[in-house]
């Protein structure tokens, strides 16, 4: 890649805009998730509707990220770490869009639930939501800073999110099996629990792409974090 003054400045500006658009997607996904769950807990249909309506903007942002990424690759032909960042960012934007889609699904189910009578036990879903929301927030930060330590911490939460999903889902499964009067509402809550777990998984997927962008290691199907990634994370800490 040509690295003359104005060309390099133009490339850096394009890369900054590219990352900014992707971070907008992350912020929107967080907001949509928050509105969908708050809509359920607070029985607020308006919040649910906001999450649903915002999804069109997220779809357009994903298309824009793809457009910007292709333009960067065609115009500047980046190599090494810059190329990895472009590739990882395009994948990460897809994960943010998927998280927003799941928030829409949650909002739609929430609207159905709040049409009926209030279900006091619905608040049992909050610990799972808080865990997943924090994971997605940390995924946004890990990407923004290309922070290997935060990415690794997220990947290590995989078992935690699965265990919490099982624990909370078990409570609502009993109500469905007993066919209590509100069993349809509890069935919808079970769907919401699964979608929350899936958002946690997407946060981990984002963390894996951050590892790829920052260290060149593809760990998507690895059982353990490679020592080379741990060493790179330690170097980041020492340089901070």
UniProtKB/TrEMBL annotation:
Protein's cellular compartments: Cytoplasm
Keyword vocabulary terms for this entry: Cytoplasm, Phosphate transport, Transport
One example of a Gene Ontology biological process annotation: negative regulation of phosphate metabolic process
Gene Ontology CC annotation, any one: cytoplasm
Primary localization class, coarse: cytoplasm
Domain (PhoU) ranges: 25-109, 128-210
One Pfam family linked to the record: PhoU
Subunit structure: Homodimer.
Family as reported in the entry's similarity comment: Belongs to the PhoU family.
Biological function: Plays a role in the regulation of phosphate uptake.
Protein name as it appears in the record: Phosphate-specific transport system accessory protein PhoU
Gene (name only): phoU
